[in-house]
Design goal:
- It is a single chain.
- With 136 residues, the chain is mostly helical.
- It has a domain of 71 residues.
- 44% of the residues lie in helices and 0% in strands.
- The protein is built from five helices and no strands.
- The radius of gyration is 19 Å and the shape is globular.
């Protein structure tokens, strides 16, 4: 039997407009959002550091990057730099490496399916969405 879908983080539900107070986890830990994004870790090469800077700025601007997420972002950037290093050497990445990289991309909303979980914050249409139901 499969494990099923991973739960969506509560702050992503708020952004998407799908939060329900009756299903809210009341004792979930809260961490500080990052306002001033730090420079890349020293062990990242040019590819990893470039991803760190570009992705980090976007996540901070979207107000979704928390202090504890820096370690996962570092892991993503390191996996990306290893992937790029192999590609430049004309080597194939293993299935496990590709799966791990895709999983990290998904965690940061970098796949079409994971992006659907978060709305862009645009205005929603006003009015009753069910006003026309039952009418011909």
């Amino acid at each position: 039997m499969t494990q099923g879908r991973k739960p969506t983080a509560s702050h992503l539900k708020v952004l998407a407009g799908t939060t329900r107070p009756d299903r809210e986890v009341t004792d979930a830990p809260e961490f500080d959002l990052i306002d001033d994004f730090p420079g890349p870790p020293q062990h990242l090469n040019m590819d990893g550091a470039e991803m760190w800077k570009s992705l980090g700025r976007q996540l901070v601007a979207a107000r979704v990057l928390q202090v504890v997420d820096l370690y996962s972002l570092e892991q993503l950037c390191f996996a990306w730099q290893c992937f790029r290093k192999k590609a430049k050497a004309e080597m194939e990445a293993t299935a496990a490496e590709t799966t791990a990289l895709k999983s990290l991309f998904s965690e940061f909303g970098m796949t079409p399916a994971s992006r659907r979980k978060v709305s862009s914050g645009s205005e929603k249409p006003k009015g009753n969405a069910f006003a026309g139901n039952g009418r011909k």
